[in-house]
Amino acid sequence: MGTLDGIEIFTSTVTAGSFASAARRLGVTPSAVSRRVAQLEEELGVQLLARTTRTLRLTDDGRAFYDRCLRIIEELGEARAAIARSGGKPSGTLRVDAPVALGRKRIASELPRFLDRYPDIRLDITFRDQLVDPIAEGLDLVIRIGALADSTLVARRLGESRIVHCASPPYLRKRGMPKTPRDLQKHACIGYLSEGRPLSFRFVTDEDIAVVDIQGPCNANDVDLMLTMALAGKGIAGIFDFVAHEHLERGTLVEVLADHPGAVWPIHALYPKNRHLLPKVSAFLDFVASVLRAPESTVSRGTSRRGRR
């Protein structure tokens, strides 16, 4: 792998547009710059720059390498600044990825407050449900819901979410209120699709986890669509409490089997080992943890308005 000085000279050359301009910026000769870039290409085994007598142009390999180099240099600068400041203000670009429903329902509305608190941070955030590799995608951290797979990433638990089983008042007037998890086998249920099949409903009991296979008119891999179907009276859905709580408070949804709580899903932040030293990452982790700890309503704590229909 190329040494750091070679990477810095290469990025300076691309930014400046020529060996001569890069040399003036770096205080060395153009031949020294050209020679060091050539050494870097030899070390990597690929051509980074296509050279003519008048211009320099990035090759495809050079473009990919250049994009990664910019992130390396940015992180190096932030690491140096973090050590120099020793607890100074978080700053720099922060790249985050979070699940769609959690991002929209809990995190998005709080982000202006985070940016007000840390004006030197520029936040690049995406909402996706699929698993992503933060190292490969240049992310500082990802937030995920559910059990963790084995990984070399550092994990920090931020909170948890309970699955709430709920239906619309018109559906319950028509089909009745289930008394036990087993009664769900006689009801229309809206399941979350995973690997082509709806996930079973799971309930926490004093002794174990009760698992109920379900069937109904619609299954989906999108929580908002499941919510829409439940609100339309198409069945009983098992959805995260942060998705359901607003509708439970309004009475447009009613929690069923409140005495048999749904399974609890942990929420973690995952990040490469080198990221936890950066003030910007620590600031965001603390902020999101405080957001997820804050109770949304008494509904998400198991006091749904079962009497409202």
Walk me through this protein's architecture.
There is one protein chain. The protein has 309 residues and is α/β, with parallel strands linked by helices. It has three domains: 4-85, Winged helix-like DNA-binding domain superfamily/Winged helix DNA-binding domain (Arc Repressor Mutant, subunit A), CATH 1.10.10.10; 92-160 and 265-293, D-Maltodextrin-Binding Protein, domain 2 (3-Layer(aba) Sandwich); 161-263, D-Maltodextrin-Binding Protein, domain 2, CATH 3.40.190. 38% of the residues lie in helices and 23% in strands. It contains ten helices and 14 strands. The protein has helices at residues 4-16, 19-26, 30-44, 60-85, 100-107, 111-117, 169-175, 223-231, 241-250, 279-293; strands spanning 49-51, 56-58, 92-98, 121-127, 141-145, 154-167, 189-194, 197-198, 201-204, 209-212, 219-220, 236-240, 254-255, 264-271. Strands 3, 4, 5, 6, 7, 8, 11, 12, 13 and 14 form a ten-stranded mixed β-sheet that branches. A two-stranded antiparallel sheet has the order 1-2. Strand 7 (189-194) and strand 8 (197-198) form a beta hairpin. Helix 1 (4-16) packs across helix 2 and helix 2 (19-26) crosses helix 3. The longest helix has 26 residues, at 60-85.
